[in-house]
Amino acid sequence: MSPPLRGGAYKKNPRSGITITTQIHFMRGGEKHHRSIKSLSDKRYTLKVSNNMKSTIAQRIREARLSRQLDQSDLAAKIDIATRTVQRWEKGEQVPDSNYLMRIAKAAGVAAHWLLSGEGEMLPTDEQKMKVIPLPMSRYKKVDLVSLPLLASVPAGALSQRFHSDQAERFITVDDVRDPNAFALEVKGNSMSPRIENGDIIVVTPKLEVRSGDICVVRVDEEDTVKRIKIDEQFVHLIPLNPEYEPMVIRKKDVTFMWRVVKVIKSV
User: Fold this and answer.
1) Active site positions, annotated
2) Homologous superfamily, domain 145-265
3) Fold of 57-129
4) In the list 9, 100, 167, 239, which could disulfide-bond 228, CB 3.0-4.6 Å?
């Protein structure tokens, strides 16, 4: 049996022999030192000596808070959490996740890496503060966002009188639409499925010229529908994409307008 270490403790391990874990305190030149000793077997010992033991996350949270002269309620208010939670963190009863560690670092003005690991300097260096990489703007295209009125729904099925362009239910924000008269419609029905399905929103622009093959909102005798169109000399063919629906043929003189669909916003 190995001799007991002074100021330490040991216990028998039936598989590996003796495992000793101890803290030895001794004085050297008036300074108190700590030694942690752990053996992996009864024949081999590993010795680690540390004069400055690394602080815990709980201690660093408290140190960070005090560096900004904040009390626990102040820090809790800054990171939007209950004061008792901060108290538990500083007591070591709970450990904040990475999201709250970043919030604490920002609120206290300390380096996040130090707060998480205890390594490096507590206060961020100028180099760390400048770690904001500017984007090469020449590689990116500027996109203008516009707010469009979302009007009453338009059927992707039989003709209906539900769409009235002067009634906006709400507004949506879209990109890359340059027609000031453009608007949005919610689609009801599945005649244009799978490209345009029930509940999807389509953006319609009256400005663009309409050609055969375009998907358009078509008004016929004050009724509206959304279909792919084919135009010939006297007629307009309204063609559904869903093969379960039959095409319709309308005389040109009965068509009030055909407005092109330029964007589809899928329903999630």
Assistant:
1) 191, 227
2) Umud Fragment, subunit A (2.10.109.10)
3) 434 Repressor (Amino-terminal Domain) (1.10.260)
4) 239
